[in-house]
UniProtKB/TrEMBL annotation:
<feature type="transmembrane region" description="Helical">
    <location>
        <begin position="35"/>
        <end position="60"/>
    </location>
</feature>
<keyword id="KW-0812">Transmembrane</keyword>
<dbReference type="InterPro" id="IPR016410">
    <property type="entry name" value="Phage_imm"/>
</dbReference>
<dbReference type="Pfam" id="PF14373">
    <property type="entry name" value="Imm_superinfect"/>
</dbReference>
<keyword id="KW-1133">Transmembrane helix</keyword>
<protein>
    <submittedName>
        <fullName>Superinfection immunity protein</fullName>
    </submittedName>
</protein>
<keyword id="KW-0472">Membrane</keyword>
<feature type="transmembrane region" description="Helical">
    <location>
        <begin position="6"/>
        <end position="28"/>
    </location>
</feature>
Length: 77
């Protein structure tokens, strides 16, 4: 069965996987506070389609970590 997959099918599968993980990547790049929650919703329920939009909304609207929280312990004043 896998031997019947051609280059076009592989390209479609790769594109779908990139689209599927987009909310998690956006949340990671934005440095949202609850990245684990976005990833959890995206991985478990993202393939259903409806909850993929929920994960995307969460990734784009959740609050981000402030610069104060990202300082190493040695640099704290």
């Amino acid at each position: 069965m896998l031997s019947d997959i051609g280059p076009l099918e592989l390209l479609v599968i790769a594109a779908l996987l990139v689209i599927l993980v987009t909310p998690s990547v956006i949340a990671y790049r934005r440095k949202v506070e609850r990245l684990w929650l976005v990833v959890l919703v995206n991985v478990i329920a993202g393939p259903t389609g409806l909850l993929w939009f929920v994960a995307l909304y969460m990734a784009m609207t959740m609050s981000t970590r402030s610069a104060d929280n990202m300082l190493p312990a040695d640099d704290a004043v």
